[in-house]
Amino acid sequence: MHKRLLLCSALALAGCNSSPSNGDLENFLEPKFAACQNIKVIDIAKTNGYEEDGYYRVDFTYGIALKDAGQLQEIKTLWQQEQERSAQAKTAYAEREQRVALLRQEIETLEQASAPRFEQFDDGQMHHSQGISATRVLTPREQYLAALDAWRNHPPEALRLKQEELKAYEQAFKDQWGNYSYQFLGQVGPAVSRFYRQGCPSTTYKFTQGMLEGHAQAAEQSNDPSHWFEARELHMKGSVTMRKTENGWRALSDG
């Protein structure tokens, strides 16, 4: 009996009864996330194992976490800056409406005071018609239209300056507020989801989806998108069938 125990101990030391280790599980799991730029596998731990049909079935736990939670906070900072700019733009657009309305009213007043009126012209006035060698009497309508064209092409100084003021104001406003696009405002969820999944193969989406469900639920329940920027870890259980090879334990399937 004593010799039998010694033999079993020797076989165990020789590795005859060896089983997959945490290192073997790391070799199985980590390549699945190797292409992911922002998430990684953590805390891989074997919890149970048993032989099954000539192979070895391993139960284990593991986690998925961000490589650098600070990057998520950088996105949050950009989102907050966009929020501030959006609020400023809302105020600026309200002020613009008032300013433009006032300038247009002033322009309209100057136009009414300076524009030629049809009743100013009559049949008795003689005018030279360009392109015609003889001088003839222009009709009141022709006189009015000619004067109107001249007024439009060369408005009074006060009117011209006010028109230029409106044009310059509109251009300055467009330069400051009109050509800005938001990356995150109104689309925080999709933006954070893309961050988690950046570089990852589609086979890992089920893991990132599990991580993001908590963000989505918290943001929806509180109506506060900032919950999307909370760094979270996903803790999972897994099981894999492995076989012993010359190069160590290799997975057959995972479930």
TrEMBL record:
Signal sequence residues: 1-23
Keywords: Signal
Annotated PROSITE patterns: PROKAR_LIPOPROTEIN
Highest rank taxon of the organism: Bacteria
Protein name stated in the entry: Lysozyme inhibitor LprI N-terminal domain-containing protein
Native species: Comamonas aquatica
Source species taxonomy: Bacteria, Pseudomonadati, Pseudomonadota, Betaproteobacteria, Burkholderiales
